[in-house]
Amino acid sequence: MSKISASNHFDMGLGLEGTHVLVTGGCGLIGKIVVQTFLAAGCHVTVVDLPGTAEAVLDLEDKDHLHFFPGDITKNIDAAFTSAESKFGTVHFCVALASLDLSVLPQSDSICDMDPAVWQRVFDVNINGTFLTCQRWLQGIRRAVSPPEPHPTTPQRPLRNVGCVIIGSESGTFGVRTQPAYGAGKSAVQHGLLLALSKDAPRIYPSARVNAVAPGAVNTERMKAETVQYGEQWRYEECEATVPLGRAVEPEEVARVVCWLASERWAGGVCGVVVPVDGGKTGPVVWGREELVERRKG
């Protein structure tokens, strides 16, 4: 056994080169950074997002490394994967990121006033769409290792970095009083679906891993615009008051965690866990000072 020294070879690379990664919602404010990170790691990346979202975000001329499929995860995710497989082969790693974001959903002061149609729509996209995405990814892995009609002279290439990351949210841990459907939907995928899938995937492919990433408040362009709209007190309560780091996380910080989880070299023993990327947030602010004053008066 050789002694430890600086001259010993220890590969610190992610080992993601040539991995085929599919990202749903890859044209969004966080998704585009995730895509950029995987491309920088040497991956082939397929992006699935709504029609009309790619032109301003993706370099569609980079056909050697990047493929875009305009689609809706609730309607044509099978076609998206089929298109991806025809371009770069089996999807090794899947990032299930697409969902209806909290910032685009109507909010109400009480669940008493919530529109049941909104509840159903959030569940259709955020739960069912995520389920369909993860299901089709694992079906593709199963097909790759057990093809119905294997070619007699073509050896099956081993798959690398096989896994899936479900993008959850701090809302799946803490809930959202003014938009309970969003919190319930994220909780369903980052807990119930994750725990089921993380036990299922290794039965299909022994080293397959499934994890979730739960971002807190992320310092995107939208967060900055909302700070202007709602004020610094809103930002303080949202991403500073109960956050040990005292700030919103950056999109790059979320993307790097997703990329790390994709690497079997670095995270090959990590499976079935939710990784919070929220600055250590301990929970939401439940009562504002003015609210409590009024409550006590009542």
TrEMBL record:
Keywords: Oxidoreductase. The keyword Zinc does not apply. GO terms for molecular function: oxidoreductase activity. Belongs to the short-chain dehydrogenases/reductases (SDR) family. InterPro entries: NAD(P)-bd_dom_sf, SDR_fam. The keyword Oxidoreductase applies. It holds the Pfam family adh_short_C2. This is NAD-dependent epimerase/dehydratase domain-containing protein. Coiled coil: none annotated.
